[in-house]
Amino acid sequence: LFGIVLGMGLFMGAQLFFSDRLALYSMGARKVSEQEYPDLHRKLTRLSQQADLPMPNVAVADSRVPNAFATGRSKSSATVCVTTGLLRTLDDEELEGVLAHELAHVKNRDVMVMTIASFLSTIAFLVVRWGWLFGGGGRERQGGGGVLVAIGVSFVVWVLSFVLIRALSRYREYAADRGGAAITGKPGALASALMTIDGRMDRVPDDDLRGQAEMNAFFVIPIRTGIIGKVFATHPSTEKRVERLRDLEKEIETR
Fold first, then answer.
1. Active site annotation includes 102
2. Rounded Cα distance, 153 and 21, in Å
3. DSSP strand pairing (57-61 vs 68-71)
4. Beta strand 57-61 with 79-83: parallel, antiparallel or unpaired?
5. In the 3-class helix/strand/coil scheme, how is 82-143 assigned residue by residue?
6. What confidence tens digit (pLDDT) does each residue in 22-39 have?
7. What percentage of residues in the chain have a pLDDT greater than 70?
8. What is the pLDDT of residues 182-210, one digit of tens each?
9. Candidate list 94, 102, 173, 249, residue with the active-site label
């Protein structure tokens, strides 16, 4: 089992180090220059200064799905990616709200936090999946019963951590919403953007949605994946997020 743990440690380290490239590759996204997307660069430059962050890399994915995500292991290596569908869907204030939300993820180091949080879950899953190889059938080798106990405990740990990680992910989405609103000072703009994106999803072809559903944990709005997807969602419902942003907007107006 030590070999499995060591191997997974190396794997998780590689995943953290190369997460930005993997995420961009899976979306078919590419980093773009200021000459190609001057307005997008201009918005991110100003918002990064307001958030006291280094200017992130800027990437664009050619996709009809209106969405955005941030990735990168640190503030200095972060990348903010938007889809062409998002650029066509949102107005300027809504787009700035979404970009600020992604910068809040960068500021909170959410990619690193979620990678570390998923480490224990991944180890437990591997013990459940491959632990029987070390049991020798449970009778032919001494200690076979101990391995079965380890597999059982690992299964419980895996299920619990699976649920808790999704709860942590939902909490961090709320935190990024609030952080993004603090950067722009306009919670209503992000609330409007969330509703616009959520409503637009119904117009996107199912093939496009299914092809990008694996990126749900990164997206500002996840792609709907049925009843099971709702139970184990990585994001709170759009309605709850909008409600909190509207409450925050009222707080700001009464100050």
1. yes
2. 35
3. unpaired
4. parallel
5. EEHHHHHHCCHHHHHHHHHHHHHHHHCCHHHHHHHHHHHHHHHHHHHHHHHHHCCCCCCCCC
6. 778 888 899 999 999 999
7. 69
8. 999 999 999 999 999 998 876 666 555 55
9. 102
